[in-house]
Structures are given as structure tokens and as C-alpha cells.
């Protein structure tokens, strides 16, 4: 019945000791850990940081979050969450982020407890938008990006074979827009089952050429994913083959890591991308 927590924050003023709480780290009695940071809050205060500082901040927080999602127990056993480790992260980001000293709290760690404390100390969004279950890391990356780009793309859009004659099956795309070319983004969880992963990638790449022929112009295709655990050899082999594929080498498909997700948002803004289908 005990856990430790540390609030992740960014110091604003050393004189007044002002700070912005950005995330929360909790460690349970068995060494299990949960770490989350608020993309929404960070986005709302981005003007307080330099462009380079903001990129470093996002990259570090995303990498730290991903470590816990991939295998929190292994990560904890190897690094031992401690004041020393937290100080290291503060130093690595040139004090852009800091961690409060770990504090004891007399509760068991679970998703509900974590969510309640996260809302209390970091950020509270609309209750209906909060996911109570533990979701995959890649789903949370998508969930955090969509509010920032939804005015520029159709989200979770279904391309119907009856409507588009270049399709032989209905296809669900995570994000689709257009400017001088069609722009598609698909989020892929490389830790999914081997068959699910194969189907997801095959479906996506199979519509690239037919769509370009239909539009009579080249498209821009983003695939968001992260290298799977080495303990999943079949998935890791797919990852390796994709990296070496002509899709990637010939810039037909751009593979985007979760901590690089801002490049999609930047592309949509710079190229003034609009929804593929208006008023949906």
C-alpha cells in the first residue's frame, strides 16, 4: 500500500521559483512504473521556450515516456529510479525539466490512481476524453496529435471501395488531407501481433500507387511507428525489412518516430493541408 511519485516540471523563474508542471512519474511497491506528460499543456506554453529548447524538451519527455511503455519493470530494474537518475535527466536537458524529490504516498499504484493524481497536479482535460484503460504508446501519440491538426485533416476516415474505384476493399486511414497532393498518415503499433502488423502495413502501402494514379499526382505518406522490443523477433524483422525497403529508401513512404511527431504537424501547417473531404 505504498508508492512513490515525482512531479516533472519546467522551471520558469529561479528567483520567484515559478514552474510549470508537465508530467508525473509514479513507482509502485513492486517496482512497476507509470510516466505521462501533458502534450496539451506543453503545447499551450510553447511560446515560453526557444525552438531548440522545445524540441529537446518534447524529445526527452517522449523518450522517457516510451521507456516505461515498452517495459517499465526492466527499465526500472536496470536504472533504479532515484534522485540521482532524476537529476541526470535535469542536467541532460540543460535544466529545461526537473523532477521533484520522490515522495511516499500510501496508495497502490494503478491507472485510476495515477489518472486522479495527474489531473490534480498536472493537467485535467475533459473527462470524456480521458482513457481509463492502459493503451498502447502509439495510440496515445495519435491521441495527443489529433487535437492539434484536426482542422487540417479527416481523422479516422473510411475510404469506401464503392466510392473510390481505385480501391478493391474499404480502407480506414488515421489521417488524410490534401494540398497540391494527397497527404496520408497511418499509426502502426509494431508491438502488435505479427499478423496484425503485416496486415496494417500491407494495406497502407497497397493503396499508395492506386491513389497516386487516381489523383494523377504524387502523394505524401507518413507511417508513424517505433522500433519493437528485441524480445519480439518477428515484429523486429518486419521493422528491419521496412527500414531497408524501397518504400523508405526512395522516399515514397516516410517513417516517423513518436518523438519526431511534430514534423507531421509542421508539414501540415507549412503546406496548408486541408481535409481530403470537407464537411465530414
Molecular structure report:
The protein is of the alpha+beta class. The chain has 10 helices and 11 strands. Mean pLDDT is 82; it is low at 70-80 and 127-135.
Brief characterization of the structure:
The chain is of the alpha+beta class. 41% of the residues lie in helices and 22% in strands.
Describe the largest sheet: 6 strands, mixed
Helix/strand/pairing category? alpha+beta
The number of distinct β-strands equals 11
If classified by CATH, what would the architecture of the largest domain be? 3-Layer(aba) Sandwich
Q: So how many helices?
A: 10
Low-confidence stretches: 70-80, 127-135
Average pLDDT level: 82
Determine the CATH topology of the largest domain.
Answer: Trna Endonuclease, Chain: A, domain 1
Question: Approximately how much helix is present in the residues?
Answer: 40-55%
Q: Count up the domains.
A: 2
What's the SSE pattern? EEEHHHEEHHEEEHHEHHEHE
CATH secondary-structure class of the largest domain: Alpha Beta
What portion of residues belong to β-strands? 15-25%
What does the radius of gyration come to?
21 Å
